[in-house]
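Posted in: Structural Biology > Protein-Ligand Complexes

Title: Requesting predicted complex, pyridoxal-5'-phosphate in pocket

I'd be grateful if someone could produce the 3D structure tokens for the following input. Sequence and ligand are given below.
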Amino acid sequence: MLSPKEVHGTLKRHQLVDGYPFVLDLEKSHGCYLHDAATGQEHLDFFTSFASWPIGYGHPGLEDKDFRRELESAALTKVANSDIYTVPMARFVSAFATEVTPEGFPHHFWVSGGALAVENALKVAFDWKAQKLGVDKCNDGNDLVILHFRQAFHGRSGYTMSLTNTDPTKVALFPKFAWPRVSNPAIEFDLDGGIANDVEAAEAQSVAEIEQAFVDYAGRIAAIIIEPLQGEGGDNHFRTEFFARLRAFADEHEALLIFDEVQTGFFGSGKPWLWQHHGVRPDVVAFGKKSQVCGIYAGPRVDEVEGNVFRRSSRINSTWGGNLVDMVRSRRFIEIIVEENLCENIATMGQSFVEGLRSLGRERGHFSNVRGAGSLVAFTSESAEQRDELLRALAGKGLLALSSGERAVRFRLPLIVGDAEIDLALERIADCLPARV
Ligand SMILES: Cc1ncc(COP(=O)(O)O)c(C=O)c1O
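-- Reply #1 --
Done. Output follows.
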């Protein structure tokens, strides 16, 4: 048996080890607390494995005997779900399609990994647009293009590489397509929650760039893709009015509107999907992370093309079609989240965290632009150095958080979080801020 203290050394002999210094104890971690198997230290987990672990550790609902039986049998055979069907898969698909996907989106597709979810959303759009144009072959990477935004992060796979533009080192050395990229009119909030920047001017600028892109790439824009809240790019929020403009552009120019909810979806925003806060319906949504199984759901607009990817075989596919163990776990998560009203819980707790941070910001300074939706909360430090220093201090105090964009600190709360953890986090942040200047 290998001891926890040997974990990093063992890994380092065979691979790059640039992750966290602790060793996750799968048994002793509990609730919102991640237990370090090597040191015994406990961390308040407001990072949740990059927003992917939804209901904390050791949730009692996971003791359920039927669930354990199904999980074990799914773990013993790795099924090629795209072509071989099972009872656990049907139970998962039914739960997801009725409890998580909103009404009016009849099509689903499952795959492993968020980037591949986005990749397949793009393929839905290319296939749809090519058929609309009556084209039977796409030869060049610029025959059809995807309109996307500055500071977007959509993953690091083939097509998504041409969209992702956060930290340049993530994409610099890989060939990319020159697809239209326009400015992202992010809202900045003051410490009372009001809008502090001229967001309407920023939107007008972005709209002008989009109009120009539809001229420069006439007939070739297959889709507009946006994260309804840009996570890695800076936790950037957008106004409903802006999403409505994107909807109108997509309708007017026969392009699909794709929302990348890999980071924001599956109840994380205090609604099943963040787009529901704005009420602007997309054509395709890519999801992953908290949902365990990644994939896409799509609405009726794709059916304007009869032979779309959801009707004709082999346009989009993969051997595993997601992972059956993830499907079983995801179904149980859905049951627990619904039974325990965790979506409502995170809406309330997230708001209380945002309010606590705003009052801390007013009292102590050093950060501004506190923003949030459910589990997705952030603020902006005065400089990148101050942000990095704060994150180091927070980790030392046992509060795990993440960086976002150039200067932001981002928190990704577990959906089970309660008042006690919110208070503790605020206390630890207050302790780590420099003295008032
Ligand atoms: C918005 C968004 N899209 C796509 C991805 C890629 O997901 P994955 O890392 O699972 O490939 C991420 C990952 O952080 C993301 O935040």
